[in-house]
Every structure is written in structure tokens, then in C-alpha cells.
Amino acid sequence: MRHSSVVQGAALAVLLAASAAPGASAASRAAMTRGPSPCPGAACALPRPAGATTDSLTLSAPRSGWQISVPHDWTQQMIDDPEGGTARFTSPDGELAMGVSTIQLPEGMDLPEVIPMLEESMDWGANPYEVRPATIHGVTGEMRSYVWQSEGAWMVAYAFYARSGPHLHVVWAVLPEPAAPGRSQQVFAIMQTYQSTFRMAAPAPLPDTAAPAAAQSETSVARPRSAGPALALALLSAGAAPGENAALLRPDTAEVNAVGQVVGTGREGVIEIALIYAETGYQVGAHRAALSGIGAGPVIEVSLAVTRPDNGWPEGVYRVVVRHDQAELGSRMFSVERAAQ
Questions:
Q1: Which of 97, 62, 67 minimizes the C-alpha distance to 80?
Q2: Which range is most confident: 96-100, 308-312, 324-328?
Q3: CATH ID of 2-35+45-199, from 1.20.1330.10, 3.90.1150.10, 3.30.559.10, 3.40.1000.10
Q4: Which residue, 36, 108, 201, 279, has most beta carbons within 10 Å?
Q5: Are 238 and 246 in contact (CB under 8 A)?
Q6: If residue 333 lies in a helix (H) or strand (E), which one and from where to where?
């Protein structure tokens, strides 16, 4: 049962993150029971579409291949590891915990085989309250809700399971059952900001070792990667106005604005922000700046504004990416679609 042990081991990141929800102490987890829920009406059912989140912070995990937007005042804990990383976000009142966990899929296995194994390792168990297919930003998966009891208190969990290349992403939320009616719409709105960046990720450039030294001129010698202090993407927005986060734009949008904020003290190499039409890989626009010309400070801000083409923005998926010397720091995707007639 090699596959089973691999999946159950990888589930540890999800289990630890989700189990840390309000009221789920180590002692209470030992007293978990699963069974019929007292949920009134559809209180514990899967949430339905809601409005977009506002005043949010977009977080990226480039190695794990995902990004998500959460309210700016939530606490954040992130481990970006494609073989078992997890991120956990908690509301200021401590009532709602959400996160994204990444699991390396065992060879030859897919969602129908892996999800039940994961569920058996979770507090919420393998008897979902509701199951339905779901698609978020072009990623197709399965949405499930769960109900279980911990020391007499009923808990609710929502989870979106989706394959992203060789990985499984689990976008989850855990909260007390009494809070579900009032907060399920918020859960759904945050889940709807999840995007998989794996399928758009640019491969790392190969080292230039093929050309003999005698054939290289002073201007053709490749500049080595900077070895200065690491930089990290803290914030990336894309929308019709600077600082706006939009998952959907229209073909007649006058301008696409992207703003990235990078943290770190390194001032070597080149920082770049680019807009890419993901359907073809065409780079619509880019802005590059030498870090040596940027003053000292905790935050480096890079921005890009691209005016609408004469015939409008082509429909499809677009990707905004921030790079340091061609190494991707993070990305954000949005779609362009015509309004329904």
C-alpha cells in the first residue's frame, strides 16, 4: 500500500493546518465524532456564488503553483513547498480559518483515488455533507462540505480539491457550525479568488554553457544571476485602475494596470513586471528596472499600464508576472470576457 502511505503522509500539512481551526485543540481532536448534523436548512451546504472580496491582499506561492486573495487584516502563515506546503489564513476574530495546501500526487493516481485517502486522515472524515463539481478560474475540481462534532461542538469545513499539474491543491475553510450561515458567502468569495499558476509557469533559464569563451564578445557574455539578498513578492494587483484586483475584465476596458510590491534589501539585477496573454504566450507589455537605481528601503514597487488595443482586448486568460533576473517571484491571472447578452 505504498500509494496509501504516501498520500496519508502528504496529508499531514492539510491536517495540521485545518485542525488548528477555532476550538480544535489536541484534546478535542481525540474526541471527534462524525454523524448527522443539526444544521438548520442549508446552513452547512456548499456556499453559492457571492460578490468579490474587497480590500484584499493577493498572496502567491510560486513553487506550489497557486495564488489567492484574502482580507488584508487576516493573519497569514505560509510554507511554499510543492511536496507538502500549506498556507493558513485566520480572520481577526479567530472564528474562520482558511488555507491552501499542496500535495504531490502519487504516480498513476488522480482525484477519485486520492480524495478518499485524504479524507480518512482528516478530522472531518470521509462522509461529506455535500459534493458537487466546481470550476474556479479554469481549474476543474470537486467542492465538498463536511460536518463533524468536537467535544459537543459542531464544526463545518468546505474544501475545493483540484489538480494542478503533478500536484493536488486543497483550498479549505473551517469554522464553527453556528457561524456557517453568516460566513459561508465570505468563504465562497475568497475561494473564488484561487488561481492555479502551475500551467502558466515559465521554466527557469538554463545556464549558458554551450558557447566557447573565444566566441563570446564583451557584449554577448551572459550576466550571472545575482547572488544578493533574496527578494519576495508581497503584493500583486491587476485591474482597470492601479491597485485594483479584478478577476474579470471586459474587452473594452480602457487600460490594464498592474502593481507589484517586492520586499527585500537586495539591489542587484533587474526587476520586471509583465502582462502575458496566456492563450498564446504573447507578452503584451513589460516594464523593467535595474535594482541598482532603486533607493534603499523595505519595499520595491513596480508597475505597468497597458492601453487597450484598437479592436479591444482579446477574450481569454491573462497573466501578470513579476520576475527578478528572469526568475519568477509570483503571478496573478485574470480573464477577459464579453458581458452576457
A1: 62
A2: 96-100
A3: 3.40.1000.10
A4: 201
A5: yes
A6: strand 327-336
